[in-house]
């Protein structure tokens, strides 16, 4: 299924954030071929969709997302072509809270709200 060429709607963001099946595939260096889809966590804050790299900014998908600025996601039964932008600043406190709420009880939560992962926060749009 080819991805839809549009930014995510608020409805899409709500559906994606409520699900736990988010796969990200930034473009490869050629800017045409998608990388291998990687399952990651996603959260919603103020009608925006955010993801973080568990292994920080050295993560392969994160490096590709920051270099290529675009790719596709597959989540909540949807495939979408999207763009990626880095996130920094106070919004990360709200993103931390969203991770705590959505993934409460997970043994991976502390890593996802660590400085390493926070430094690799990405807005998906």
From TrEMBL:
InterPro entries listed in its UniProt record: UCP028498
UniProt cross-references to Pfam families, sorted A to Z: DUF2255 (PF10012)
Protein name as it appears in the record: DUF2255 family protein
């Amino acid at each position: 299924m080819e991805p839809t060429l549009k930014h995510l709607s608020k409805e899409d963001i709500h559906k994606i954030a409520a699900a736990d099946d988010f796969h990200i595939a930034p473009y490869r260096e050629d800017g045409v071929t998608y990388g291998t889809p990687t399952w990651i966590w996603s959260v919603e804050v103020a009608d925006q969709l955010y993801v973080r790299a568990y292994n920080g900014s050295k993560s392969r998908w994160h490096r590709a997302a920051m270099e290529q600025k675009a790719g596709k996601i597959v989540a909540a039964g949807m495939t979408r072509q999207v763009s990626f932008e880095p996130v920094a600043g106070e919004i990360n406190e709200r993103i931390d809270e969203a991770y705590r709420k959505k993934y409460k009880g997970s043994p991976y939560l502390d890593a996802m709200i660590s400085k390493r992962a926070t430094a690799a926060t990405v807005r998906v749009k």
